[in-house]
Amino acid sequence: MYTSSVHTIPDGRYHSGMDKALQTIYQETLYLVDDDPPLVLRVGERNDGLRILFVSFNVESAAFVTAWNPRSRKLTLDENYDRQTELLEAIEELRLNYFVGTGEHPSGDWYEESFLILGITPEQAAELARQFDQNAYLWIPLSGVPELVITQVNP
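^ thats the sequence. predicted structure below, dont judge the formating
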């Protein structure tokens, strides 16, 4: 179900009951991709640079995923770096191309290191988000319009 570029994974273990303030933070966040020039992704806004990247890598989709701060629980930098290394290993096992990125809120209050994973399937992206206990991730279809996918587990 799509509602203003926000949707939930369609399985009974996940729901759209995320705190509205947290959902707003995710929607306001700038998702930065370390490319030349850098790409700035925003939920619901088409990014032509990303569409060019899709053509260059011959893919039709991508996901922007992090392993930092599971379920919005702030971890130490060392813990987050360890988790991010595990995520990178999982991406490499899938043999997918990726770019390093960060999610940064415009307030400057927080950021999370992330990966833009090219050619990933919706099922693979959802599984990575589950594996690393993430509330949400970005799904980017061929249109180049990032969608916020909420994966928050029922309380």
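Residues 140 and 146 are 4 Å apart (CA to CA).
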